[in-house]
Design a protein that fits this description.
heterodimer; A: mainly alpha; MetI-like fold; B: alpha/beta; 10 strands; globular
Chain lengths: ~220, ~240
């Protein structure tokens, strides 16, 4: 069945696909870093005991997690132009960061709660403030405990970046789609990008295994 | 140094401490004992404000602990505390454990903090393990590090919350030795423990608690000679006759 395939379209389209891949990476890294930072703050807000703050954070997280990512991408792209001029790429960056923050916040909340109360008391007992204890004692341990889950979430995120196809942002999939249509060889290009997605995710997961061994806390 | 006046505390509707009054003077070593669930750990955690109290007052070195205006971190920075489960920071090396409070709270330089930390590690006999992580040390060694960490903040008094209860019997001695030495140097200490040998050796006073109340508060000789209350007599006869 492969006799009709023509993979010779791949080399000339590489530079364009590369650009798409770079955007996919940019989207993943931005959403991961932004998501972890905002997510950690959301988690702290929920655990702070402050009623209004905790409620606001919980509402945000619940709302984000109850709507499919694709809907969020579309809605934001359709509504944002009423408030600002925005490219599909910027729209995707913002949506992904806000959406991922909700998921990372749940991971961080579990991570923070996994740290025994005694550790917090120990931080307090040597005179650290709440924020010093969080920053030096709780969060570093919570992050280490949560690395496998945080990275798994990041794989899902990387794979989900292909959804920006819907709003025409040029990511890896869209770039492949465009060139495929240009040459009339869509199937070949889809096979090619699938292999790229696989190669990247597989090597990342190997890297995660290695990292887990290195940063695990000796107990 | 530490004044505890008519302190009561509730967890919901359950009263954990009832009208506790006692004090620890400068240079005094006070041992708090009693059956489990009697509130002794809760009481000692109230002293540095880790547990809030509902009634009464606690004054440490002239500062009222249960006053909302009190700068608790500042107060705690010079009240050392040692926990039952050591609570060393597992993601930091031993020397970092000793340096972090000095650097972040007291504002010392890294070099200064490390130098002071190494001196204290030497004193508790852990100097050679300075760059290891807490998980690589035995329980007794970890607890000695925890004592050194508390001392690194130059505390004016030390609180010990069952420091030997989580240790294997053979490691208890190495921790008690460090504590005895501290007591003999004149450190003000409040110690929750079942180690009556330690109490006999260095305590000035012994407090016996039961059901959240201070049942007996007497000089050591009197406490071990002839406790006033039946409950304390029972307790002593049970833990001493082996």
């Amino acid at each position: 069945m492969f006799s009709n395939f023509d993979f010779s379209v791949i080399p000339p389209s590489l530079p364009y696909i590369w650009q798409g891949l770079v955007f996919s990476f940019r989207l993943t890294v931005t959403a991961m870093l932004g998501g972890i930072i905002i997510g950690t703050l959301l988690a702290l807000a929920r655990l702070s005991g402050g009623k209004a703050l905790g409620f606001a954070a919980k509402t945000y997280v619940d709302l984000m997690r109850s709507v499919p990512l694709l809907m969020m991408i579309l809605w934001f792209f359709l509504l944002a132009p009423f408030f600002m001029k925005i490219t599909p790429e910027t729209s995707a960056l913002i949506t992904f960061t806000l959406f991922q923050a909700a998921f990372y916040s749940e991971i961080m909340r579990a991570g923070i709660q996994s740290i025994p109360r005694g550790q917090i008391n120990a931080g307090f007992a040597i005179g650290m403030s709440y924020w010093q204890t969080m920053g030096n004692v709780v969060l570093p341990q919570a992050f280490r405990n949560m690395v496998p889950v945080l990275l798994t979430q990041t794989f899902i995120l990387f794979q989900d970046t292909s959804l920006v196809y819907a709003i025409g942002a040029t990511d890896l999939l869209k770039a492949a789609d465009n060139t495929g249509k240009l040459y009339g060889r869509t199937v070949e290009m889809y096979i090619f990008v699938s292999l790229i997605y696989f190669a990247i995710c597989f090597s990342l997961s190997m890297f995660v295994k290695y990292m887990n061994k290195r940063i695990a806390i000796i107990r | 140094m530490i004044q505890i006046q008519n302190v009561s505390k509730w967890y919901g509707s359950f009263q954990v401490l009832t009208d506790c009054t006692t004090q620890v003077s400068k240079g005094e070593v006070v041992v708090v004992c009693g059956p489990s669930g009697s509130g002794k750990s809760t009481l000692i955690k109230c002293v540095n404000g880790l547990e809030p109290i509902e009634k009464g007052s606690i004054i440490v070195n002239g500062t009222k602990v249960n006053d909302p205006a009190t700068d608790l971190p500042k107060l705690r920075s010079h009240v050392g505390m040692v926990f039952q489960h050591f609570e060393l920071f597992p993601h930091m090396s031993i020397i970092q454990n000793l340096a972090i409070g000095q650097v972040k709270v007291l504002g010392r330089s890294q070099d200064e903090a490390h130098e002071r930390g190494m001196k204290l590690l030497d004193r508790v006999g852990i100097k050679m393990h300075a760059n290891k992580y807490p998980g690589e040390l035995s329980g007794g060694q970890q607890q000695r590090v925890a004592i050194a960490r508390a001392l690194s903040m130059d505390p004016i008094c030390m609180l010990f919350d069952e420091p030997t209860s989580a240790l294997d019997p053979e490691m208890i001695t190495e921790v008690l030795d460090v504590m005895v030495e501290l007591a003999q140097e004149g450190m003000t200490m409040m110690v929750v423990t079942h180690e009556m040998g330690f109490a006999r050796k260095v305590a000035h006073r012994v407090i016996f608690m039961d059901h959240g109340q201070i049942v007996e508060d007497a000089p050591k000789e009197e406490f071990f000679g002839k406790p006033h209350s039946d409950r304390a007599q029972q307790f002593l006869s049970k833990i001493l006759n082996h």
